[in-house]
């Protein structure tokens, strides 16, 4: 009997363990929580976009330069002497008129030279008169007593020429003496300002000594560097010279002066004859007339020499150009465009001009399309997007439909759950 029980236990115990294991497995499968299914498709990326405009655009070139005098000279004497007078306006920053005496040199020696030259002229003139009388007398004597043709020496023609030459030399010396006397008064042939002063009252100066530096105030110039791409935006040839029939482009100069933003109007008048070999740029010269007068009255402040200014040069007009924000450019020739339905597409363009805020292009874009301006990580052609304006307002026509995506995802999840339940029941059976 004991042997029979032991045999039965040996048979049914393993079977019971297996049955218990299978039952536990079925219970675990039936009661296991259903895993949440995730939509494998990427959700649309939110991007900012701005409309593309089509219009005629006047190009502008932005550059910089320093204001310098159009006419500037070193003030130097042509005669030697001690300075006896200095104009009160002959000081750094002083204004003066054309022909106004700025410095006078002691003229005593030069007045004496004029007196001596005048005396020599009088003597030479008297000698010429005497020689003319003797020549007339010689001619009459030959007519009365001579025979044949008289020689020039007999008629005293060489003596006459010598006396005339002596008079001419004396008059030239007098003119030179008077000219040197005039040169003791030093002035400039234009109205201007004094940049530097190098001599003062009582100083002895010689010919060519530097007394100071002055410049004219009728006009100033600004040398503006232009790169090759900037030259292509201007409607001027490389060797440009403004004329009445072909005036140069308008230039707007601006700078912070005494804490206030100022602007002045200038005109481009010419370009340099050569390209700078070091910077490889071509300089164009803009001119402002009457910078301390009319220009100052128009802008509330003069345009002083030495001021560093920003310049905006008016260029050529581009017909039917496409304009968009500068941030829309990707690389050198690509923009991202939001198409209807919420997809991103790549477009190739050619950049005509660009600034800090604006991009002017031609190419595969159209008016009214939305150029994407925000950064897009791992962008791909045809990716799904949600398009927002700069104010954050969503544009439905340029955005992917999220509601249909969610419904499709929900339908797929429900179908998957039903399939899993059916599979579990089949396993349990």
UniProtKB/TrEMBL annotation:
Q: Which domain of life is it from?
A: Bacteria
Residue ranges of the Multidrug resistance protein MdtA-like barrel-sandwich hybrid domain?
73-211
Tell me which stretches of the chain form a coiled coil. 114-187
Please name the Pfam families in this protein's record: BSH_RND
* Keywords for this protein: Coiled coil
Q: SUPFAM superfamilies, per this entry? A: HlyD-like secretion proteins (SSF111369)
Q: Which residues cross the membrane?
A: none
What family classification does the UniProt entry report for this protein?
A: Belongs to the membrane fusion protein (MFP) (TC 8.A.1) family.
What is this protein called in UniProt?
Answer: Efflux RND transporter periplasmic adaptor subunit
């Amino acid at each position: 009997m004991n042997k029979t029980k032991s045999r039965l236990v040996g048979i049914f115990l393993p079977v019971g363990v297996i049955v218990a294991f299978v039952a536990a497995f079925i219970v675990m499968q039936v009661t296991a929580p259903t895993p949440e299914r995730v939509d494998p498709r990427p959700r649309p990326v939110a991007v900012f976009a701005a409309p593309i405009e089509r219009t005629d655009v006047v190009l502008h070139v932005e550059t910089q330069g320093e204001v310098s005098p159009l006419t500037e000279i070193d003030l130097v004497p042509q005669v030697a002497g001690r300075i006896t007078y200095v104009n009160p306006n002959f000081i750094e920053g002083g204004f003066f008129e054309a022909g106004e005496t700025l410095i006078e040199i002691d003229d005593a020696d030069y007045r004496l030279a004029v007196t001596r030259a005048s005396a020599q002229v009088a003597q030479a003139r008297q000698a010429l008169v005497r020689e003319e009388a003797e020549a007339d007398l010689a001619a009459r004597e030959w007519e009365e007593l001579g025979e044949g043709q008289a020689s020039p020496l007999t008629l005293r023609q060489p003596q006459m020429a010598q006396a005339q030459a002596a008079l001419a030399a004396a008059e030239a010396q007098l003119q030179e003496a008077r000219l040197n006397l005039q040169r003791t008064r030093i002035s400039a042939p234009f109205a201007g300002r004094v940049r530097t002063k190098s001599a003062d009252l009582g100083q002895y100066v010689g010919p060519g000594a530097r007394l100071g530096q002055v410049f004219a105030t009728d006009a100033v110039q600004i040398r503006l560097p232009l790169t090759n791409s900037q030259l292509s935006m201007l409607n001027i040839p490389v060797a440009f010279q403004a004329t009445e029939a072909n005036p140069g482009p308008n230039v707007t100069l601006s700078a912070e002066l005494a804490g206030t933003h100022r602007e002045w109007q200038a005109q481009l008048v010419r370009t340099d004859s050569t390209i700078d070999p070091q910077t490889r740029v071509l300089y164009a010269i803009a001119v402002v007339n009457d910078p301390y007068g009319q220009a100052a009255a128009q802008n509330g402040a003069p345009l002083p020499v030495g001021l560093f200014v920003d310049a905006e040069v008016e260029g050529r007009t581009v017909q039917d150009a496409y304009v968009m924000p500068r941030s829309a450019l990707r690389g050198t020739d690509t923009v991202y465009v939001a198409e209807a339905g919420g997809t991103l597409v790549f477009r190739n363009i050619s950049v005509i001009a660009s600034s800090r805020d604006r991009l002017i292009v031609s190419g595969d874009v159209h008016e009214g399309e939305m150029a994407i301006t925000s950064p897009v990580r791992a962008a791909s052609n045809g990716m799904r997007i949600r398009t927002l304006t700069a104010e954050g307002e969503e544009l439905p026509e340029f955005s992917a439909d999220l509601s249909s995506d969610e419904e499709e995802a929900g339908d797929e999840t429900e179908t998957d759950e039903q399939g899993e339940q059916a599979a579990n029941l089949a396993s349990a059976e």
